[in-house]
Amino acid sequence: MAFNYDRHIRHGKLPHIWCPGCTYGIVFKSLLRAVETMQIPKDHLALVSGIGCASRLPGYVDWNTLHTAHGRAIPFATGLKMARPDKRVLVVSGDGDATAIGGNHFIHACRRNIDITVIVMNNFIYGMTGGQHSPTTPVGHLATTMPFGNIDPTFNIPSLAQGAGATWVGRGTAYHVPVLDRLIIGAIEHKGLSVLEIINGCPTTHGRRNKFRTPTDMLLWMKESALPLSAFEKLPPDKVAGKFPTGVLYKREAPEFSETYFAMVERLQKQQEGGGG
Ligand code: SF4
Ligand code: MG
Fold first, then answer.
1. Average of pLDDT values for 82-111?
2. Best probe residue, ligand 1, of 205, 209, 210, 216 (max atoms within 8 Å of C-beta)
3. Where are the domains of the chain?
4. What is the CATH number of domain 6-273?
């Protein structure tokens, strides 16, 4: 199927800033295909980001977009959703932006179950600022702030989201593109807070410091390490190391925050009109 990427592009903003071999361009196109497949009118889409290489993405799309402060995409998106609940509000963020600087906002948005899609583009490093370790940098990996190998235990982003109360949690990779298209659609379709972690490769500040000789090596690592959840669950314990599950990892129904809020406002207004106090 031929997709009309062009109608989503904000002309005059390309070429993008991403390095050769960065996988963010793959995610960018996947996101455009997802919304094109869903036939969401451009004016119904609002895309919010914080700071970082992933957060440059909204600058390239001709939707309603906000490029905000580091770690603060979710609070901006929350305000936007409450002001315009008719919009499909999406956040794109990196691992540092979402789970370190914005970690508090992240967990509370999960708990609140507001209808926002949070896409966390996890490349295991702070890319834009030069390769500092983030909450997802694997133990032992080299970073500018961990020159002898990272000793900080890592966050598992889907587990963090589920534990904090997110009602839809998924994981995809930049290698498994058709699956990624479907996961983005599923995350947007879900009513409530959805968190989609997308495993990415940053060859410039992570890969080349950590024995990935080329950007292709990073994609091959994704190919070999990712397993659909059903296959991952069948692995014997001695085969789990180095693998991770992908797909929809968790899903449940729960009251959505903006609907609950506006129902409360309506109830209180009726009480007041009826003199109920
Ligand atoms: Fe991509 Fe890393 Fe370059 Fe940023 S620094 S554009 S994440 S490769
Ligand atoms: Mg990062």
1. 98
2. 205
3. 6-273
4. 3.40.50.970
